[in-house]
Amino acid sequence: MVSVTTCILTVLIGFGSFVRSYYTEEYRPQFHFTPEQNWMNDPNGLVYHNGQYHLFYQYNPNGTTWGFMSWGHAVSTDLVHWKHLPIALECESDSNGNVLEMFFSGSAVVDVNNTTGFAIPVGKDRRGHVINSTPMVAIYTSYYPTAHTQSNGVVIRAGQQSQSIAFSNDNGLTWTQYEGNPVIESPPAGYVDQYQNFRDPFVFWYSPSSKWIMVASLANEHILLIYSSDNLKTWKLESQFGPENAKFGQWECPSLFPLYVDGNNRAEKWVILMGVNPGGVITGSGTQYIIGSFNGTTFVADPSDTYDPTQIPAGSIVFQNFESTSSTFKELGWKATGDFALFGPQVASSVTTQTINGNLGSGLLTTWIVDDSATGTIISPKFIITKNYISFLIAGGYYPYNPSTAGTANDNQVSFSLIVGGQVVHSQTGADAENLVWRSWNVAGWFGEEAYFIVTDLNTNSWGHLHVDEIIFSDTPKVEANWNDFGPDYYAAATYNGLPTADRIAIGWMNNWAYGGNIPTSPWRSAMSVPRKLALKTINNNVLLVQQPVSSLSSLYTPSLYSRKFSSLKSGETEIPVPAPYNARMKLTVSFKRGTGSKFGVILRSNATNTQETIIGYDFLGQNVFVDRFKSGDNAFVGSEPNQFPGHFIATLPSTLTDSITLNILLDWSSVEVFDGNGQVAFTSQIFPLDDSAQVKLFSVGGTTRTVTVAINGMKSSW
């Protein structure tokens, strides 16, 4: 047994007293939550109690990179203005400085029925009856870096992850760890070897059975374990769920909660929300959801909400499956140049990079020839677009097609692109992974036109290769997963306990593990997304998880800074006058209809030479919302190749000629968040522009955009 101290190496003096003086550093968000200083990641323990929203979060008290993980703590009465509180659960070490326990992610509940017995007397009522406290209980993963024996005699293995609890009787200000920790020491039979990747418990009260329910992740197995308990101390394994849909990287930070469909309290469904890392919709981290039912012991996904990667949509035309591994590309009617000229499809198992997974059949197209040094192009035969969607499997390195550098000496793309009329109209790169994943393009806007594909590999750096398989044409897209956010910077989303079913609020970590430890901010690193209200909505006969920023953000709006309606916006750029400082932090809503143009959108944080800008818009032909941060400012902080920060991110949003499309945009000093009018598409993206990049513009490409309405409010600082 060992004596225990906290891991704190430095002391935060005057906690919260000098926030106002230094919440103006370069890139410091003005209406997103950030810690005063040091590293932050996952939101934890979101719970509403006694008029306060509690936000706990993964926190390093000793620096601006991950380590010494503890639970930071803040509270708010409106989800907008936050008050910093002392660290709730502090990393612990022995007398020699060896870290014994870190406090990983989890949840918090209010034990109103005192099922734990943690309540204490706090006074008496007028009749002399004892009044007890209402315990707040944190349920978290104990991570034990070193082997040791706890004071309660539990033998801990190095790297072990177990589920533990702590309680507070003063509304979360001070905490006591349960003497019987951990309450779930190891994964169940069949998974005992996963003791180092068993984490992130989400707990809630299930009224029909009067039990606590826990969902915890076996991260590497892509399995969620569902437990029940009468008292938060003793747990019974009830069932498991998974793997389903995005089965990549690790599954982390799951939550399970009910929502009403279309606001009808008689039409309830349950939602699993979880992080996937790596393996997000772009590269690095992402967040997926699955809709289904829950009966108190078992979650069952709706059949319409799970996707078999081996099945293609009915009526699909297979353009190329690359099974002719004894043929050259030339023999298949493709044209290969450079190092690929004499090659053809390869047997996936023979490719000597890391193990390739997810291909259909045995063959695929690959640009890995012995190593990453091969360069050149592989061009398909021409074809006529006769279906609404093109889908394909893809893997490899993240080196996206960049229109600004394509064809220049700086062109380093490794991409699979669709060419129509001599122009790249869609392009996809890999995600620094060898797992082939489905991606789909809407091509209805080019119906009847001639097109071809080009695989371009101009990169000899690490991950400078691409794999492509099973190119199909279909009337519907081949869906891989339900993504909660299509941007690169929304992960580990957690939802609030203690609110009505109709008021489910989520907050995500606004960062990405691919580069999060290097973003150019100081003395803090990482922010949270704005809180978002979740709902289930039927759109085109499909029930979808939708989201919008919480309405209380309106308390930060300035009076209108700009409001105008254009019956027809001309082709080109139209500058919008927005005064400082609100040209760098604003709420912008734009509605529009298709005219003669092919794209429309907004340019934010642009400089006079257009060498810095963030572009948000809609592609009428490609039927997608997009965010482009190729030129959004500093991205050199990644410091290595591939650089996973720059990119052009899309989400399909079909529309007709008469549809009015609405985009709600929140711009803060170092981020943009975008929501379509229905909330079915969301993007979260960090940006790091220079101070002089402050222009705001509308743009219309290739013609006019009709019925454009623009409304801008500045966002006052919440600090």
What does this molecule look like?
It is a single chain. 1% of the residues lie in helices and 47% in strands. It has one helix and 53 strands. The strands form eleven sheets. Strands 1-6-7-10-13-14 form a six-stranded antiparallel β-sheet, with no helix packed on it. Strands 23, 25, 26, 29, 32 and 34 form a six-stranded antiparallel β-sheet that branches. Strands 24, 27, 28, 30, 31 and 33 form a six-stranded antiparallel β-sheet that branches. It is mainly beta and 719 residues long.
Task: Please specify the SSE layout and strand pairing.
Blueprint: E1 5-6, H1 19-22, E2 38-49, E3 52-60, E4 70-76, E5 83-89, E6 92-93, E7 99-110, E8 121-124, E9 130-132, E10 136-144, E11 148-149, E12 155-156, E13 160-168, E14 176-177, E15 198-206, E16 211-218, E17 223-229, E18 236-241, E19 250-261, E20 264-277, E21 286-294, E22 299-301, E23 317-320, E24 335-336, E25 346-347, E26 363-366, E27 376-379, E28 383-384, E29 389-396, E30 414-420, E31 423-428, E32 433-442, E33 450-457, E34 466-474, E35 482-483, E36 491-495, E37 505-510, E38 524-525, E39 527-528, E40 532-539, E41 542-549, E42 557-569, E43 572-576, E44 586-594, E45 599-606, E46 613-619, E47 624-631, E48 648-652, E49 661-668, E50 671-676, E51 682-686, E52 695-701, E53 705-715
Parallel strand pairs: 2-38
Antiparallel strand pairs: 1-6, 2-3, 3-4, 4-5, 6-7, 7-10, 8-9, 10-13, 11-12, 13-14, 15-16, 16-17, 17-18, 19-20, 20-21, 21-22, 21-35, 23-34, 24-27, 25-26, 26-34, 27-33, 28-33, 29-32, 29-34, 30-31, 30-33, 36-37, 37-39, 37-40, 40-41, 42-53, 43-52, 44-49, 44-53, 45-46, 45-52, 46-47, 47-48, 49-50, ...
